[in-house]
Known about the structure:
Elements: H1 10-26, E1 31-36, H2 42-50, E2 54-60, H3 66-72, E3 83-84, E4 99-105, H4 114-126, E5 127-137, E6 139-140, H5 148-160, E7 167-168, H6 169-178, E8 181-189, E9 193-200
Parallel strand pairs: 1-2, 1-4, 2-3, 4-5, 6-7
Antiparallel strand pairs: 5-9, 8-9
Amino acid sequence: MNDEARRHSPAAERNRAPILAELQRLLPPQGTLLEIASGTGQHAAFCSAGLPGWRWLPSDFDAASLPSISAWCAGLDRVATPIRLDVLQPHWPGVPAQVDAIYCANLLHIAPWACCAALMQGAARHLAAGGLLVTYGPYLEDEVPTSSGNLAFDADLRARDPAWGLRRREDVEREAARAGLVLRERVTMPANNLLLAWGRSAAA
Protein backbone atom coordinates (compact mmCIF):
# COMPACT_ATOMS: atom_id res chain seq x y z
CA MET A 1 0.00 0.00 0.00
CA ASN A 2 1.34 3.44 -0.92
CA ASP A 3 1.35 5.24 2.42
CA GLU A 4 2.34 8.54 0.80
CA ALA A 5 -0.77 8.59 -1.40
CA ARG A 6 -3.19 7.72 1.40
CA ARG A 7 -5.09 10.61 2.90
CA HIS A 8 -6.54 10.14 6.36
CA SER A 9 -9.81 11.43 7.81
CA PRO A 10 -10.26 11.00 11.58
CA ALA A 11 -14.04 11.33 11.11
CA ALA A 12 -14.06 8.51 8.56
CA GLU A 13 -12.09 6.37 11.01
CA ARG A 14 -14.65 7.06 13.75
CA ASN A 15 -17.86 6.58 11.78
CA ARG A 16 -16.91 3.66 9.53
CA ALA A 17 -18.01 0.88 11.90
CA PRO A 18 -21.51 2.28 12.65
CA ILE A 19 -22.03 2.96 8.94
CA LEU A 20 -20.94 -0.55 7.97
CA ALA A 21 -23.32 -2.05 10.54
CA GLU A 22 -26.24 -0.22 8.92
CA LEU A 23 -25.17 -1.15 5.39
CA GLN A 24 -24.97 -4.80 6.46
CA ARG A 25 -28.50 -4.54 7.85
CA LEU A 26 -30.03 -2.66 4.91
CA LEU A 27 -28.42 -4.36 1.93
CA PRO A 28 -28.98 -7.85 0.53
CA PRO A 29 -26.12 -10.39 0.56
CA GLN A 30 -24.69 -9.37 -2.81
CA GLY A 31 -24.77 -6.71 -5.49
CA THR A 32 -22.92 -3.77 -7.01
CA LEU A 33 -22.59 -0.54 -5.04
CA LEU A 34 -21.60 2.88 -6.35
CA GLU A 35 -20.00 5.11 -3.75
CA ILE A 36 -20.28 8.83 -4.50
CA ALA A 37 -17.83 11.24 -2.83
CA SER A 38 -15.49 8.49 -1.64
CA GLY A 39 -13.06 11.07 -0.23
CA THR A 40 -9.98 9.44 1.24
CA GLY A 41 -11.10 5.91 0.35
CA GLN A 42 -11.24 4.71 3.96
CA HIS A 43 -14.94 3.82 3.76
CA ALA A 44 -14.46 1.95 0.49
CA ALA A 45 -11.69 -0.17 1.97
CA PHE A 46 -13.37 -0.86 5.32
CA CYS A 47 -16.99 -1.29 4.23
CA SER A 48 -16.22 -3.40 1.18
CA ALA A 49 -14.35 -5.82 3.45
CA GLY A 50 -17.47 -6.11 5.60
CA LEU A 51 -19.75 -6.72 2.60
CA PRO A 52 -18.06 -9.72 0.96
CA GLY A 53 -20.83 -10.28 -1.60
CA TRP A 54 -20.64 -6.75 -2.96
CA ARG A 55 -18.61 -5.16 -5.73
CA TRP A 56 -17.69 -1.60 -4.74
CA LEU A 57 -17.36 1.22 -7.29
CA PRO A 58 -15.71 4.27 -5.65
CA SER A 59 -15.82 7.77 -7.14
CA ASP A 60 -15.10 11.37 -6.26
CA PHE A 61 -15.46 14.81 -7.85
CA ASP A 62 -11.93 15.76 -6.76
CA ALA A 63 -9.43 14.09 -9.08
CA ALA A 64 -6.76 14.59 -6.40
CA SER A 65 -8.65 12.15 -4.16
CA LEU A 66 -8.42 9.26 -6.60
CA PRO A 67 -4.83 8.23 -5.75
CA SER A 68 -5.75 8.08 -2.05
CA ILE A 69 -8.77 5.89 -2.80
CA SER A 70 -6.59 3.62 -4.92
CA ALA A 71 -3.97 3.41 -2.19
CA TRP A 72 -6.47 2.50 0.54
CA CYS A 73 -8.09 -0.13 -1.70
CA ALA A 74 -4.91 -1.61 -3.17
CA GLY A 75 -5.19 -5.39 -3.45
CA LEU A 76 -8.96 -5.47 -2.88
CA ASP A 77 -10.25 -7.32 -5.93
CA ARG A 78 -13.90 -6.41 -5.33
CA VAL A 79 -13.16 -2.66 -5.35
CA ALA A 80 -12.99 -1.12 -8.82
CA THR A 81 -10.54 1.56 -9.92
CA PRO A 82 -11.98 4.88 -8.67
CA ILE A 83 -13.47 7.25 -11.22
CA ARG A 84 -13.98 11.01 -11.23
CA LEU A 85 -17.70 11.71 -11.00
CA ASP A 86 -19.47 15.06 -11.11
CA VAL A 87 -23.08 14.45 -10.02
CA LEU A 88 -24.16 17.68 -11.75
CA GLN A 89 -23.44 16.19 -15.16
CA PRO A 90 -26.58 14.93 -16.95
CA HIS A 91 -24.86 11.59 -17.58
CA TRP A 92 -22.42 9.80 -15.29
CA PRO A 93 -19.61 8.38 -17.46
CA GLY A 94 -18.12 5.17 -16.14
CA VAL A 95 -21.16 4.30 -14.02
CA PRO A 96 -23.02 1.10 -15.00
CA ALA A 97 -26.53 1.54 -16.34
CA GLN A 98 -27.83 -0.11 -13.18
CA VAL A 99 -26.38 -0.62 -9.71
CA ASP A 100 -27.99 -2.27 -6.71
CA ALA A 101 -27.08 0.45 -4.20
CA ILE A 102 -25.60 3.92 -4.06
CA TYR A 103 -23.82 5.16 -0.94
CA CYS A 104 -22.98 8.83 -0.40
CA ALA A 105 -21.52 10.21 2.83
CA ASN A 106 -20.94 13.85 3.72
CA LEU A 107 -21.60 15.36 0.30
CA LEU A 108 -24.77 17.42 0.55
CA HIS A 109 -23.50 19.96 3.09
CA ILE A 110 -20.14 20.47 1.35
CA ALA A 111 -21.52 21.06 -2.14
CA PRO A 112 -23.93 23.49 -3.83
CA TRP A 113 -27.59 22.77 -3.21
CA ALA A 114 -28.02 21.81 -6.88
CA CYS A 115 -26.03 18.67 -6.12
CA CYS A 116 -28.92 17.35 -4.03
CA ALA A 117 -31.36 17.30 -6.95
CA ALA A 118 -28.65 15.91 -9.22
CA LEU A 119 -27.84 13.13 -6.76
CA MET A 120 -31.48 12.13 -6.47
CA GLN A 121 -32.07 12.23 -10.23
CA GLY A 122 -28.91 10.23 -10.90
CA ALA A 123 -29.83 7.67 -8.27
CA ALA A 124 -33.29 7.25 -9.77
CA ARG A 125 -31.65 6.80 -13.17
CA HIS A 126 -29.12 4.17 -12.11
CA LEU A 127 -30.70 2.22 -9.26
CA ALA A 128 -31.97 -1.25 -10.13
CA ALA A 129 -35.46 -2.24 -9.03
CA GLY A 130 -35.49 -2.49 -5.25
CA GLY A 131 -32.17 -0.66 -4.97
CA LEU A 132 -31.34 1.84 -2.24
CA LEU A 133 -29.60 5.20 -2.08
CA VAL A 134 -27.98 5.56 1.35
CA THR A 135 -26.90 9.04 2.44
CA TYR A 136 -25.03 9.89 5.63
CA GLY A 137 -24.18 13.14 7.35
CA PRO A 138 -25.52 15.96 9.53
CA TYR A 139 -28.94 17.43 8.73
CA LEU A 140 -31.33 20.04 10.02
CA GLU A 141 -34.82 18.78 10.80
CA ASP A 142 -38.10 20.52 11.53
CA GLU A 143 -39.21 20.00 15.14
CA VAL A 144 -35.91 18.32 16.05
CA PRO A 145 -33.51 20.51 18.05
CA THR A 146 -30.17 21.00 16.31
CA SER A 147 -27.13 20.25 18.45
CA SER A 148 -24.80 23.11 19.29
CA GLY A 149 -22.03 21.28 17.46
CA ASN A 150 -24.04 21.04 14.26
CA LEU A 151 -25.08 24.70 14.52
CA ALA A 152 -21.42 25.70 14.82
CA PHE A 153 -20.47 23.38 11.96
CA ASP A 154 -23.20 24.90 9.78
CA ALA A 155 -21.99 28.43 10.52
CA ASP A 156 -18.40 27.43 9.75
CA LEU A 157 -19.37 25.84 6.43
CA ARG A 158 -21.36 28.89 5.33
CA ALA A 159 -18.48 31.18 6.28
CA ARG A 160 -16.14 29.09 4.14
CA ASP A 161 -18.52 28.97 1.18
CA PRO A 162 -22.02 30.53 1.07
CA ALA A 163 -23.15 27.65 -1.18
CA TRP A 164 -22.41 25.12 1.57
CA GLY A 165 -24.28 24.34 4.78
CA LEU A 166 -26.34 21.72 6.54
CA ARG A 167 -29.51 20.83 4.60
CA ARG A 168 -33.03 20.43 5.95
CA ARG A 169 -33.99 16.80 5.73
CA GLU A 170 -37.43 17.89 4.59
CA ASP A 171 -35.92 19.82 1.66
CA VAL A 172 -33.89 16.76 0.70
CA GLU A 173 -37.06 14.65 0.84
CA ARG A 174 -38.76 17.08 -1.53
CA GLU A 175 -35.94 16.77 -4.07
CA ALA A 176 -36.05 12.99 -3.70
CA ALA A 177 -39.79 12.96 -4.35
CA ARG A 178 -39.29 14.94 -7.55
CA ALA A 179 -36.98 12.16 -8.72
CA GLY A 180 -39.41 9.42 -7.70
CA LEU A 181 -37.61 8.43 -4.49
CA VAL A 182 -38.99 8.24 -0.97
CA LEU A 183 -37.37 8.00 2.45
CA ARG A 184 -37.47 4.38 3.60
CA GLU A 185 -35.50 4.67 6.84
CA ARG A 186 -34.11 7.38 9.10
CA VAL A 187 -31.39 6.09 11.41
CA THR A 188 -29.88 8.20 14.19
CA MET A 189 -26.10 7.83 14.14
CA PRO A 190 -23.30 8.88 16.51
CA ALA A 191 -22.05 12.48 16.63
CA ASN A 192 -25.44 13.96 15.62
CA ASN A 193 -25.48 12.43 12.15
CA LEU A 194 -28.26 10.64 10.28
CA LEU A 195 -28.19 7.73 7.90
CA LEU A 196 -31.08 7.94 5.41
CA ALA A 197 -32.14 5.14 3.09
CA TRP A 198 -34.05 6.11 -0.07
CA GLY A 199 -35.91 3.87 -2.50
CA ARG A 200 -38.25 4.21 -5.43
CA SER A 201 -41.78 5.31 -4.67
CA ALA A 202 -44.60 2.95 -5.60
CA ALA A 203 -45.53 5.24 -8.49
CA ALA A 204 -41.99 5.47 -9.88
